[in-house]
């Protein structure tokens, strides 16, 4: 079964305002976005359960490699008539918006009840994928169309997928209601194109809610519990300097389970990192990795930690005196003092240098006062190198899905100025209005 046509990739800039206004339905209960953009608040949720530090290595590698301690950025979306509101984790490594089907036999459970929506339309398309949790379990999906509310926009007949848990082999969703996938549409990994692949951005473009398939990501520091994803544009008061363009590249995958995350290692938002450097007030900058052509790293908003090679991990550990492994967990504990002092881990990507302050890179887990951890693991656990939330919390990222480009800048905050991006706009000429930070 073939995917529906995505429609034109370009919206003519000379559309009359009246035509534009009549093409978009707006949810009166939500904050309106700048025309040509859809603004979605991110809610930060975490469960720093101290019991999670007693699990064995295999449980970490299989079950928690992308949601260790369950720190996630979630978006709210409503589907169906009447509306059913769902809280879904934002996932840049998945290209599908899917929701867990609510089991009618289990009252009090969460998910989407397909029997309660009067506007739900089945597509008679069924497919499956492997899931990185539960020893590579298989999740089976059904495809549907229904009305959905995304930010302030009501999307007519959005294509999405549902996952009936009782038909998924060995899967346990663990309280997750689904995934808000904003990954690149995969080209060639699947035998048959999936209708729900990248369906949200296509629908917003076809409905003229956005001018091009682009979005920007602003993850706040983990202690602030929020952030923003802006579909169709960027906010020039959330970063400093210029945004540096970087083409996505073909990545590497060493995971034996060919799940969607592993496939994203090859075909997702993979960028080449040329250099990783640590800065500190007690010594000169130290280069811990230097690859002139760049080593592939996947950008993944749903990964709570970074995944590096053992060589990079060891060299980073050497820059934190007293760093020691945590028994039963492939993480590293350090003294909490560096969290409060100057210093950063700097990533050179093309011509961009993204500085991740030590205060953001180092974890402080509330149930374990006085203990701090370095949020990094061996890339073998994920199948590839990954830059997750610790990196993305310091970067302002703009994704151009039409051209498969990533734009990076150092995050700042000096107000708000949301800008809708049109096909003719040069993203690398959208200069940040904030003064440059020292990165301390």
UniProtKB/TrEMBL annotation:
Swiss-Prot/TrEMBL keywords: Signal
GO process annotations (BP): proteolysis
Gene3D superfamilies per UniProt: Acid Proteases
Protein's UniProt keywords contain Ribosomal protein: no
InterPro entries reported for this sequence: Aspartic_peptidase_A1, PEPTIDASE_A1, Peptidase_aspartic_dom_sf
Domain Peptidase A1: 73-409
GO function terms (MF aspect): aspartic-type endopeptidase activity
Annotated signal peptide: 1-23
Catalytic residues of the enzyme: 91, 300
PANTHER family per record: ASPARTIC-TYPE ENDOPEPTIDASE (PTHR47966:SF65), BETA-SITE APP-CLEAVING ENZYME, ISOFORM A-RELATED (PTHR47966)
Stated family: Belongs to the peptidase A1 family.
Protein name: Peptidase A1 domain-containing protein
Gene source species: Ophiocordyceps unilateralis (Zombie-ant fungus)
